[in-house]
């Protein structure tokens, strides 16, 4: 099978988080396993996590651009130089006008990853949110566009495949509660949550996962030292997340990509909406009985309730388990190979 060059445009920062880079890394890994040739194009931004891509040995090019127009020109230039079979865009700040400018400069078909139902000019749209389907995505794209929608296309990172066997066994020792509130957590909700959890006299251990773009690590370490509570362990290496999630009894998570990872592992979750774009995912999963929704103030009480109720935890695990089957990235790669990229006249 011939190598298929794919140029991927995505960014990360303290402001936008690391989700776009994370899921593109998962997809690029599936591309590489299928013999494809992904290359990343990223801007240097405050708190960016390009290192996550470098650590996976992906080729990464630095994009220096002051305007969206310059950005699109640079993207098109790289795609032409690489003779890209596909361009892929995953960016919260670049959409329809950017895509039109990009396509005017390069004939390669364009795939877009977006969960916000913005208008797009593309040949393939991926919206891997649980609430997405062909019907609600179709009005946002041209008629010829291939639509991949829903958790069938959830982009699961390779380390979570490896962690699946760990999740099959019951945690040993005290119950373990994993706290993971996203890659950045700009408002330090993690610190507020830890303060609330410390007030509960539960016999359990708390694993606190700090995202790689979190700037509050030193302050949180000081706060936990002042609590002098041996139940709390602070983790800073994002590579630990899969094992921690697989081994936990209960997870308190932001409403982002971790919810899909918990679904793959069948873990009971208390879900917090910490950004507007998480609301619909959390509402949908809560309506299915697959998560318990809470906020920072109510989450400690929900943790105590669920630790005392193994039956309810089994209920939640049964409802969320199976929603993600782990083959989403492979399905997307297959679609990229299948779609001809034939473009309608502009």
Description:
This protein has 346 residues and is of the alpha/beta class. The chain has 2 domains: 5-156 and 327-338, 3-Layer(aba) Sandwich (Rossmann fold); 158-320, Glycogen Phosphorylase B (Rossmann fold). It contains 14 helices and 13 strands. Strands 3-2-1-4-5-6-7 form a 7-stranded parallel sheet, sandwiched between helices. Strands 10-9-8-11-12-13 form a 6-stranded parallel sheet, sandwiched between helices. It starts with a strand and ends in an 8-residue tail after the last helix.
In brief:
The chain has 346 residues and is α/β, with parallel strands linked by helices. It has helices at 19-33, 50-54, 68-81, 96-105, 134-137, 158-167, 189-198, 217-227, 241-247, 258-265, 279-287, 299-307, 310-320, 328-338, and strands at residues 5-10, 37-42, 59-62, 86-90, 110-113, 124-127, 146-149, 176-180, 205-209, 232-235, 250-254, 269-272, 292-294. β12, α11 (279-287) and β13 (292-294) form a beta-alpha-beta unit.
The tally of strands reads: 13
Count up the helices: 14
Overall tally of structural domains: 2
Largest sheet data: 7 strands, parallel
- CATH class group of the largest domain: Alpha Beta
Average residue-wise pLDDT: 90
End-to-end distance, in Å? 32 Å
Radius of gyration: 21 Å
CATH topology of the largest domain: Rossmann fold
Shape: globular
Keywords:
Rossmann fold; disordered C terminus; six-stranded parallel beta sheet; seven-stranded parallel beta sheet; 346 residues; alpha/beta
SSE arrangement:
Layout: E1 5-10, H1 19-33, E2 37-42, H2 50-54, E3 59-62, H3 68-81, E4 86-90, H4 96-105, E5 110-113, E6 124-127, H5 134-137, E7 146-149, H6 158-167, E8 176-180, H7 189-198, E9 205-209, H8 217-227, E10 232-235, H9 241-247, E11 250-254, H10 258-265, E12 269-272, H11 279-287, E13 292-294, H12 299-307, H13 310-320, H14 328-338
Parallel strand pairs: 1-2, 1-4, 2-3, 4-5, 5-6, 6-7, 8-9, 8-11, 9-10, 11-12, 12-13
Helix pairs in contact: 1-14, 3-4, 6-9, 7-8
């Amino acid at each position: 099978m011939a190598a298929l060059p794919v140029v991927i445009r995505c960014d990360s920062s303290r402001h936008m988080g690391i989700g776009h880079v994370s899921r593109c890394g998962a997809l690029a890994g599936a591309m590489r396993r299928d013999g494809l040739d992904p290359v990343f194009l990223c801007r240097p931004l405050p708190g960016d996590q390009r290192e996550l891509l470098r650590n996976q040995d992906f080729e990464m090019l630095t994009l220096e651009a002051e305007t969206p127009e310059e950005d699109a020109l640079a993207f098109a230039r790289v795609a032409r130089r690489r003779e890209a079979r596909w361009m892929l865009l995953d960016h919260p700040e670049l959409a329809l006008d950017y895509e039109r400018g990009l396509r005017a400069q390069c004939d390669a078909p364009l795939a877009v990853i977006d969960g916000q139902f913005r208008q797009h000019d593309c040949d393939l749209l991926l919206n891997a949110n649980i609430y997405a389907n062909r019907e609600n995505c179709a009005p946002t794209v041209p008629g010829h566009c291939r639509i991949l929608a829903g958790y069938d296309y959830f982009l699961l990172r390779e380390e979570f495949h490896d962690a699946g066997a760990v999740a099959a066994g019951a945690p040993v020792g005290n119950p373990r509660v994993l706290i993971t509130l996203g890659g950045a957590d700009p408002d330090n909700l993690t610190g507020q949550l830890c303060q609330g959890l410390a007030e509960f006299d539960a016999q359990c251990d708390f694993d606190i996962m700090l995202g790689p773009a979190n700037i509050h690590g030193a302050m949180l370490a000081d706060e936990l030292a002042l609590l002098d509570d041996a139940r709390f362990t602070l983790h800073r290496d994002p590579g630990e997340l899969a094992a921690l999630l697989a081994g936990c009894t209960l997870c308190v998570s932001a409403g982002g990509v971790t919810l899909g990872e918990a679904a793959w592992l069948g873990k009971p979750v208390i879900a917090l909406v910490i950004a507007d774009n998480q609301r619909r995912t959390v509402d949908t999963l809560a309506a299915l009985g697959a998560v318990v929704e809470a906020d920072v103030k109510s989450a400690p009480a929900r943790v105590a309730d669920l630790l005392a109720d193994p039956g309810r935890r089994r209920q939640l695990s049964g409802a969320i388990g199976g929603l993600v089957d782990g083959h989403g990235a492979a399905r997307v790669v297959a679609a990229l190979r299948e779609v001809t990229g034939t473009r309608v006249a502009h």
